[in-house]
């Protein structure tokens, strides 16, 4: 990972890092990644009935181990994961950092990974489904202003805005560790200077959050959310890396 030294500089300076990687790998690459997984992860992979789902799980979790190994200096096979409340994973190993947060999302043939050393981070990637009932889903889960914004557009831009709102909301909820059960509490606002802001109607937001869309390859959309729990967090230092195993 030739980009690792520069990425570590950004993380240690108080920034955040994002990796996106394809999961449509060949049999040999997938086999090499499977050797990095724990017995529990291999058992989970084998429970998938679909070969495609099994292959994607192996690829995503193998790549996760490769990247986290490069950041922590721990052998990929020796990384130990445990779940926090609501199933959000964390590393159980002794780490050379005071704080280390990561979050993984994968959809169809793409994965997205976010890492931060200063505050909680969440990511979401979604495959854009051509026949998704975006208006029905928006009416059910989104706030009236969001629904109006989507319905004011022609079909293709409306679909893209729907997925943008959805991924921004889910990235935030993954960062908080709550998951999509509270999707209906989260409102996305367009900011005057560009970009997006977030309002959580379900709780008091005592942290400063940054949410932003992530450019993914055609047919996908992604988002990133990070909170500043430390005065050392620098919201202007965010780097994105395309990773190829």
Automatic annotation (TrEMBL):
Molecular function, one GO term: holo-[acyl-carrier-protein] synthase activity
Residues of the 4'-phosphopantetheinyl transferase N-terminal domain: 34-113
Keywords: Transferase
Cellular component GO terms, alphabetical: cytosol
Keyword Mitochondrion among record annotations: no
UniProt keyword annotation of Transferase present: yes
Family matches, as Pfam families: AASDHPPT_N, ACPS
Biological processes, Gene Ontology terms: lysine biosynthetic process via aminoadipic acid
Annotated 4'-phosphopantetheinyl transferase domain residues: 120-199
InterPro entries in UniProt: 4-PPantetheinyl_Trfase_dom, 4-PPantetheinyl_Trfase_dom_sf, AASDHPPT_N, P-Pant_transferase_sf
Family classification: Belongs to the P-Pant transferase superfamily. Gsp/Sfp/HetI/AcpT family.
Protein name as annotated: Phosphopantetheine--protein transferase-like protein
């Amino acid at each position: 990972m030739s980009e690792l030294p520069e990425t570590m500089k950004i993380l240690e300076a108080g920034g955040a890092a994002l990796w996106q990687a394809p999961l449509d790998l060949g049999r040999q690459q997938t086999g090499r990644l499977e050797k990095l997984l724990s017995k529990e992860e291999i058992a989970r992979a084998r429970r998938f009935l679909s070969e495609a789902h099994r292959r994607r799980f192996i690829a995503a979790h193998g790549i996760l181990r490769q990247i986290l190994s490069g950041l922590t200096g721990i052998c990929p096979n020796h990384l130990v994961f445990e779940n926090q409340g609501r199933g959000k994973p964390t590393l159980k190993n002794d780490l050379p950092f005071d704080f280390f947060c990561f979050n993984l999302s994968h959809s169809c043939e793409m994965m997205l990974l976010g890492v931060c050393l200063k505050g909680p981070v969440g990511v979401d990637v979604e495959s854009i489904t051509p026949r998704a009932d975006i208006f029905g889903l928006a009416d059910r889960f989104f706030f009236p202003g969001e629904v109006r914004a989507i319905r004011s557009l022609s079909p293709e831009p409306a679909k893209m805005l729907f997925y943008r709102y959805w991924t921004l909301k889910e990235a935030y909820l993954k960062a908080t560790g709550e998951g999509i059960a509270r999707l209906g509490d989260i409102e996305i606002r367009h900011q005057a200077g560009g970009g997006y802001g977030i309002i959580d109607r379900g709780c008091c937001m005592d942290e400063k959050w940054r949410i932003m869309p992530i450019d993914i390859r055609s047919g996908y959309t992604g988002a990133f959310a990070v909170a500043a729990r430390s005065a050392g967090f620098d919201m202007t230092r965010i780097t994105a890396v395309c990773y190829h195993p």
